[in-house]
Amino acid sequence: MKDYIFQTRLDVRDYECDIEGIVNNAQYIHYCEHTRHLFLKQCGLSFADLHRRGQDAVVARMQLQYKAPLRPDDEVLSCLNLQKEGIKYVFYQDLYRASDEQLCFRGKIELVCLVEGRLASASDYDDAFAPYLR
After folding, report:
1. Residue among 67, 6, 13, 14 nearest 37 (CA)
2. In the chain, N or C: fewer CB atoms in 10 Å?
3. Quick one: 19 exposed, middle or buried, by C-beta within 10 A (0-12, 13-18, 19+)?
4. Per-residue pLDDT tens listing for the chain (134 residues)
5. Is 98 in contact with 9 (CB distance < 8 Å)?
6. Side-chain-facing half-sphere of 132: CA atoms under 13 Å
């Protein structure tokens, strides 16, 4: 596995699976979003508090690659790295099956910030993410 700036573990729940007995494709996006929110907490930010202050990070673009299926009772290692490209934050997110470290999903998720509804840099995000940007 690569080095990551943040990792967390998640459990696959039965209701996240489709008729084939594997995790539904849309659920991987939820895993990634939950991981980003946990990363925000680690950075000392609250997504809800930032929204109340008029700063919203929104997904602008996603590139998704499904590599191997996840199944009920699998434990998932959710990992991310972060870069800033101009005004956008680019999250590189990988999901691994914890039991064998098999890469199951790879995502490149681009976020931009809206400040009071307008596209802009958000200083709270910039300051909190600064230690993690390479």
Report:
1. 6
2. C
3. exposed
4. 789 999 999 999 999 999 999 999 999 999 999 999 999 999 999 989 999 999 999 999 999 999 999 999 999 999 999 999 999 999 999 999 999 999 999 999 999 999 999 999 999 999 999 999 86
5. yes
6. 22
